[in-house]
Amino acid sequence: MRISQLFGKTLREDPADADTSSHRLLIKAGFINQLVSGVYSYLPLALRSLKKIETIIREEMNLAGAQEILLPTLQPEEIWKRSGRSVAFGETLFKLKDRRDRDLVLGPTHEEVITELVKGHIRSYRDLPVNLYQIQTKLRDEARPRAGLIRVREFAMKDAYSFHSTQEDLDKTYDGMVSAYQSIFSRCGLDVRAVDADSGAIGGKDSQEFILLTDTGEDEIVLCGSCDYAANMEKAQSNIERVIDDTKGGLKEVYTPGIKTIDALSKEFHVPQTKILKSVAYVADGALVLVMIRGDLDVNETKLVNYLGAQNIHIATDVELREEGLIPGFISPLGLEGVRVVGDHSVVSEVDVIVGANREDYHYTGARHGFDFTIAESIDLNRVQEGHECVECGGKLTINKGVEVGHVFKLGTKFSETFGATFLDSDGTEKPMVMGCYGIGVGRILGAAVESNHDDKGIVFPKAISPAQVIIVALNTDDATVDAAANLLYETLIGQGIEVIIDDRDESPGVKFADADLIGIPFRATISARSIKNGNTVEIKNRMDGNDQLIHLPLDDVGKIIEAVT
Most exposed of 195, 222, 453, 496 (fewest Cβ within 10 Å)? Predict the structure, then answer.
């Protein structure tokens, strides 16, 4: 590949709308070009890297026993309605009609389609297990595309689906896929953490995300500094510090004009926020639900949605509250009738607390759970905070930013029961297949690799997914000797199976060196009039070692040159 003929040019200035390092560098280096928000064209250098990522994925999937297929992007909406995910995906789902006015969707994932396919081919337990995968374009109408290839609306994904006769068999394949994923990310140069995760709209019992820790990530990851506990914020649990209470003043109604917030109540009564109960009202599938939680904590809405099994949920508006006879800012579980109340574990009976009085400008002090009010439903609903105790070892938890690059799920029988995907077991009974699914974002791996492998000069590609192994920088190209030497080395390395890019442009050394660093090819080989004069040598620089040290090798010693760049 000759840069003089390469489609796509590097930029001298940073793109104005780039919000992460990978976004900025992939545009600046001429790898991607945005068509509309969240939709990109992949230029030749990017496509080279993407194909290498796909090859690594295919090798590991095949080694894990999965078989490659290709499923349709265009899907009937009816199967999404049958699974209930037409509602769960909501506006993220691209919908359209064909010329016969039939409702269709553009597939964001393929659980429905693969289950329909497999149920027509599996009859007996002898046909199981089966593990099928594809690398295919997915489309999701993301509300806020961001970070270049990290959050997009059109993207390539490897999704695999396994079908089993027993849960134990699923567990075995699941563990094998986790190992395959770890190998994929390691080969792509990514240091990822497997963390417990919420299953979201995909569904299922257990799931894990593979997270690249980076300050520019949009996911919050909870890690323990003393053990291996790791979970995303939606799933994370903690041991919160218990409040010790020595005040037993009894229930008392107090006039609190205009005081509606936890912070204002804490200041007014000179008590910590742990001594106040926060009332958070939601409307879940049209019904009002009141959540009680300690004043210093926040509600983890994912935990709440999962517990309620709700499809649609939002914070209740003041109008919705008043329609139910509740006073915004002064809501209380005391004397409440006809409204479902769910409490976080932080609501304990041993502590006198301040709560609303369900009366304008009034609160109660000295209220006690189990005495003055009772919450029948008590579960873990709080959002983990920095410094909370680990549920496994008691160590301190930290909150970190990260990018999800893969996700695996134990789906169980959710989809197989819905679509009638059954098999005859060895005892002759008909049973639903047990399913797992496993996803990797191909483009997201590229974005994540750049996010974690760059410096102030540009991209520093891991060798396995770099567009090429070597970039030859030919200086003084008007010198026939230099030009001939550079082209001979170019042809020789290609003949030896080395992937090479040659910068044969009529540009200054500064421009060529800057572009070589920006593009991030692992090794730079420089040939100039000076190197020819000084013993007919080539200067080799390792882009990955973080310094500008050069080694000088004879141009006619191809073996040493190959050894230096491989």
Answer: 496
